[in-house]
């Protein structure tokens, strides 16, 4: 059985935890506030805990705002070796909402991979609004989770989870494609914030 | 009546010419090979001509591969002042299909605008496969044309054309957003080339 740890108890963390539980994975939810982790975990029959607790998952989902990732990686320094780290972030400069905070020729996923070379980073879920993960639909289309990474086995593990949870998974290429996934995620956020697409929609990939 | 010149007689040029004709615009199609221009223009009741002919459009659509744009701008140096230049390109490095050929912190649209400061550049159509412009649908959804630019009047002129032609137009923000539109266009091309979305689909924006 796949074991998945979700770090973060926000909208997306909750949606990915529910997806993993639906997929039959053993799920652990960790958050700075253990009460929030419990609120998500309890209805799913998942474990809840506090940031710093032992990681039970082989797949660790960083369901955090980008600015919060670095401290969490420090917290778990040494405990991430051999894990598949799933980066869901859109590293938007929320002060201006006009750029990303990562260098133009890099990506949040690349930066996380460089910070934790002993783990395997996979970019996924950053182009999905939480609601579309929960319902399985983006407008009239099936929700598609785009997955990028350099390690086929790690990508397949994440794709297997997505598929077993009832959603469509697409291999979007190497970790280099995280740059385009983050551009897409950012653009989609600006369009939804501007009322040009609903938070239950965004960009849906025609199958 | 809006007057539109399409430079280029490929798949996208033909689709934009048909859209403009449907919108009731006066349409001119120019191509290096005047026979190709004629093939597109004749059924639309549009004018056809050769690259270098006088531009009759106030809106000039550069429906060319990115590598061919520079020579066309040279050909029309001086004749582009005051025009709205529509950049439809995805400046993909087709040798590797793994990157764009423009600097990571720039875009084809930005480079074209800098090359022709006396014209107003609008990014549009680069996230639409030609077939979706022709049919009005991307899978089950209405085709949406994303438009980015710094000049509201120019964007509205292009949006008006799109809407009058029966498609949905969305203002995607300033010309800076061309970077994200080109990332989206590139990603979409890689997915279609990999058989992961049909050339009649791609990313459809939920309305």
Give the proportion of residues in helices of chain A. Answer: 25-40%
Low-confidence spans of chain A: none
Query: How would you state the average pLDDT of chain A, rounded?
Result: 97
Biggest interface goes to: A-B, 37 and 37 residues
- What is the strand content of chain A? 15-25%
Radius of gyration of chain A, CA atoms, in whole angstroms: 16 Å
Strand order of the largest sheet of chain A: 3-2-1-4-5-6-9-10
How would you sum up this structure in a few lines?
The structure is a homodimer of 207-residue chains. Chain A is of the alpha/beta class. Chain A has 7 helices and 11 strands.
Notes on the protein architecture:
The structure is a homodimer of 207-residue chains. The first copy, chain A, is an alpha/beta fold and 207 residues long. Chain A has one domain: 3-Layer(aba) Sandwich (Rossmann fold), CATH 3.40.50.720. In chain A, the strands form two sheets. In chain A, strands 3-2-1-4-5-6-9-10 form an eight-stranded mixed β-sheet, sandwiched between helices. In chain A, strands 7-8 form a two-stranded antiparallel ribbon. At the A-B interface, strand 10, helix 7 and strand 11 of A face strand 10, helix 7 and strand 11 of B. Strand 11 of chain A pairs antiparallel with strand 11 of chain B.
């Amino acid at each position: 059985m796949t074991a998945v740890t979700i770090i973060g108890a926000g909208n997306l963390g909750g949606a990915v935890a529910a997806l993993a539980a639906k997929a039959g994975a053993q799920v652990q939810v960790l958050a700075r506030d253990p009460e929030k982790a419990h609120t998500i975990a309890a209805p799913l029959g998942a474990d809840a805990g506090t940031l710093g607790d032992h990681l039970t998952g082989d797949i660790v989902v960083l369901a955090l705002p980008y600015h919060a990732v670095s401290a969490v990686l420090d917290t778990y320094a040494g405990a991430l070796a051999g894990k598949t780290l799933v980066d869901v972030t859109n590293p938007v400069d929320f002060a201006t909402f006009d750029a990303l905070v990562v260098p133009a020729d890099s990506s949040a996923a690349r930066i996380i991979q460089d910070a934790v070379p002993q783990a395997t980073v996979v970019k996924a879920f950053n182009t999905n609004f939480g609601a579309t993960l929960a319902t399985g639909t983006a407008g009239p289309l099936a929700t598609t989770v785009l997955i990028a990474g350099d390690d086929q086995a790690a990508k397949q593990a994440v794709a297997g989870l997505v598929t077993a949870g009832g959603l469509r998974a697409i291999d979007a290429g190497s970790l280099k494609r995280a740059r385009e996934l983050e551009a897409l995620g950012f653009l989609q956020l600006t369009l939804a914030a501007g009322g040009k697409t609903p938070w239950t929609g965004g960009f849906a990939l025609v199958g």
